[in-house]
Each structure stands twice: as structure tokens, then as C-alpha cells.
Write a structure and sequence with these properties.
By secondary structure, the protein is mostly helical. The chain is globular, with a radius of gyration of 11 Å. The termini are far apart. The relative contact order is 0.20.
């Protein structure tokens, strides 16, 4: 069963945005960033794209 996120449609805080930027700049994969931020992968991907951040993919 997929993880359930209770934070559906919650606005991003400035602390979360700073953490997102730091994790993306370190080259962390999407799944790990989502878990660290307790947000869905889709939410993290959309926000990173909106901010122009690179997303690493696991291969």
C-alpha cells in the first residue's frame, strides 16, 4: 500500500522551500526529497519545476 500523506494541498512554508532547494542542489533523488519533506513525490516535483530546480533520477 502506498504511503498516505495527510498534508494534502497545504501551502509550502519558507523553511520547506529552503530545505527543498538545499536537497535539490545536493543532487538528492526525488523519492528521498519527498520523504525528507513529508510531501508526495508529485508535489515535490511540481514545486521544484516551478522554482527551476534540477531533479536527479535514480538509474
Amino acid at each position: 500500500m502506498a504511503e498516505k500523506f495527510e498534508r494534502h494541498r497545504q501551502p509550502w512554508t519558507s523553511a520547506e522551500l529552503q530545505k527543498l532547494h538545499a536537497l535539490a542542489n545536493k543532487g538528492m533523488p526525488l523519492k528521498a526529497m519527498a520523504k525528507a519533506l513529508t510531501r508526495s513525490e508529485e508535489s515535490v516535483k511540481d514545486r521544484a519545476k516551478a522554482d527551476g530546480l534540477p531533479i536527479k533520477k535514480l538509474r
